[in-house]
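wait is this the right file?? whatever heres the structure
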């Protein structure tokens, strides 16, 4: 009996050892002629989800460099509306407006239109041909049709405003108010408006209406009137009433 129990116990222990050894053997794939062991890769440990990554802090943007102040845009040039005017017609319009506004009793003679050129500029404006070519673009004169009446009005277009200012000085210095035979005008003057110059030898009572007509024709802005000659005692005798004419004794 004891032997039988001993055998059973030994058999049980051997069986347990056999089963344990089989569990630790690698899986085998049957092949002809025997079995070859096939290694089974171990299951990788599950990688934990790291979760949403923290947003990186934005890098500091460089401050924009100071932009230079924009250069001021040049002012647009204002077109000169008078640059292409008909000078002769303009002078006639000035004289017509003057005649409509002279005081009662004043007298304006019948006139002739004369173009001023380098050939006659010394007698009409008191400037040399060289000065005429340098400063004058165009010029016209309205002179009394009767030579015994000292009356003359000239309109000059200069190259620009500076040329007109220079012409004003030259005419005041060089114009001869005593160029008429036996008669002198009551006054001679010169005034500018932009590039235009008005020169006159006229009676006193026509001066103000003439200045006003000139200003109205050129926008109302004129320079100072330079009355560079006024008749005095050097011309004896009496002229026609309001005519600005003095007859010299023979």
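ok assuming it is, sequence goes like this
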């Amino acid at each position: 009996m004891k032997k039988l129990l001993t055998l059973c116990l030994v058999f049980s222990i051997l069986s347990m050892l056999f089963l344990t050894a089989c569990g630790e053997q690698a899986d085998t794939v049957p092949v002809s002629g025997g079995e070859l062991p096939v290694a089974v890769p171990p299951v990788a440990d599950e990688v934990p989800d790291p979760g949403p990554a923290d947003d990186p802090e934005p890098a500091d943007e460089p401050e924009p460099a100071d932009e230079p102040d924009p250069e001021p845009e040049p002012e647009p040039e204002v077109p000169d509306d008078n640059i292409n005017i008909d000078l002769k017609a303009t002078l006639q319009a000035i004289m017509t407006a003057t005649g409509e506004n002279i005081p009662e009793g004043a007298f304006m003679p019948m006139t002739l239109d004369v173009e001023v050129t380098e050939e006659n500029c010394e007698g009409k404006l008191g400037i040399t041909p060289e000065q005429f070519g340098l400063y004058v673009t165009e010029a016209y004169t309205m002179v009394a049709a009767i030579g015994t009446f000292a009356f003359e009005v000239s309109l000059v277009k200069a190259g620009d405003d500076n040329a007109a200012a220079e012409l004003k000085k030259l005419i005041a210095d060089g114009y001869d108010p005593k160029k008429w035979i036996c008669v002198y005008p009551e006054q001679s003057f010169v005034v500018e408006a932009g590039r235009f110059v008005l020169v006159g030898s006229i009676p006193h009572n026509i001066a103000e209406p003439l200045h006003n007509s000139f200003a109205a024709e050129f926008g109302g802005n004129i320079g100072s009137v330079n009355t560079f000659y006024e008749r005095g005692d050097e011309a004896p005798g009496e002229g026609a009433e309001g005519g600005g004419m003095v007859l010299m004794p023979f």
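The two ends are 197 Å apart (CA to CA). so i think its the right one actually
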